[in-house]
Structure prediction request, 595 residues.
Amino acid sequence: MSLSARMIIVLTFVGLLSGSFLATVDLLTKERIELNRQREIEEAILQVVPGTHSSQKLYEEKDLTVYGGKDKKGILIGFAIQASGIGFQGKITLLLGTNPSIKKINSLKVIDQKETPGLGAKINDRESFLKFWDNKDCSNLLTLRKPAVKTQEELGYSEINTVTGATISSEAVLNLVNSSLNRLRQLEKEGELSSEEQDVN
Amino acid sequence: MSTRSIGQEFVKGLWDDNPVFRQLLGLCPTLAVTGWVINGLAMGLATSFVLIFSSLVVSSIKKFIPNQVRIASYIVIIATFVTIADRFMAAFFPLISKSLGPYIPLIVVNCIILGRQEAFSSKNSVGRSFIDALGMSSGFVLALLILSSIREVLGVGTFLGLQVMGTWFKPWIIMILPPGAFLTLGILLGIALHIERKTKARK
Amino acid sequence: MELVAIFVSAILINNFVLYYFLGICPFLGVSKKISSAISMGLAVTFVMTITAVVSWAINHWILIPHKLDYLQIVSFILVIASLVQLVEMFIRKMSPPLYQALGIYLPLITTNCSIMFLALLAALRNYSLAEAIAFGVGSGLGFTLAIILMAGIREQLDLADVPEPLKGAGIALIVAGIMALAFMGFIGMIK
Prediction:
């Protein structure tokens, strides 16, 4: 057998073997990976829209996805918006939970961020930042309170507390929330958020 | 053909021929994922999986592979095991898979693995190649553990997520950021070489 | 504007070497002389740009339509290995002295993590062809920048009194650490 023929046969054989192995592994793990992904989204939605029994993806565009949280009877009890924007050091991805009239924020969850550990990364910290978003009235534009105050009571009606030493990260989150709320209201007015047949996919 | 004993074949990967500290291979993942001990450990184990199985396969079929296509064949074999490791982690350890991100697929270009196939598995028996891979993997995991322990303890005061430094300790955040990685590895390399010189001088 | 942002951040803010820790082996190996650093940097940039195009094509025309994404790792690395072979043959024909100068580091471009990372990240972030090219050229130039800076510093270091155990890789890494620290100043450049 000539050398070239041998080379081609060996390479083809190795390639085929590799391909079939990987196809098998893909079949074995595909479902599990998809399930993990779904579970992650559902758990997050449950956190920001408490009482959700089932959720549904209502709208998707670049850097913004809107989910609807429904109770056992299938009635909409809140929206969960996943939005991404640029922070101080990289992309920030948030999950914002609101009530159906988009007048109140249930809570805020930071899904992904690459801010400076110890400073900007504190936007993911309950005590330093996230707790101030709980049950916040958002019928008016939200603003940032600078410098930061110590207690919830000192904050104005539409004010959010800044993370000390991380103004840019805090502002990034605030802008992302405000723009997401506006977009959500716009989408609702345009009728884009009507329920479809399928569940979260 | 190797003339070392089985024991020596294994131990050399831990110190004398340690892939990171002595051969200076696989530095990309070593620097990238050692900010947290759990990440370093996961990366080390994933790499070990790929190295051991690739070595087993390569040394088993080395007689059938023509010289000209050996590198291409090794690459396909290695890439196959890397994909398996990547999928397996995404399916069963989604949290770690997420934090290691695209660095798991990068195992395919980890010079340690291709280097070992070229330098050893293609020229030695299956048994020896297995021991060699085991030794090199252990050396790699050891290096990752040392580096990540230093970085996590000094950088945030925890080890495997558990607080080990008291509140008196003000963490050096820089340690888990890129500069900390470079500096720590550089100093460790210096220490390793220094120890080697001292032991050579004594012999 | 998005393209410019991708391009600039790849060079300065998320520099492949100093932020993502990619391409460390050639970074330490070829950065002893500025001239070889420049050649290596440009070779890598060239391979990266073409890889960006070819891997995008394979991903979008073959892998995704047929749900074969699990073959990404295998196909990308094969593309890179073949490209490097071609570049090697090309340089050997066109400029034998350059071929000699780059020596063993030319085939090593294949294991340069930065190229594989580039292909994977462009696929992960679903970049369009234009974005992938901007990313490829940007990260290649970022690598080139880092390696030239490092070579410049090391040429000076050769004349300095470095302690024995730190000579070579040790001091190079420490310098890299300081450079990484400096590059952190670029963070926040893109709003």
Q: What stands out?
A: Residues 2-186 of chain C form one domain.
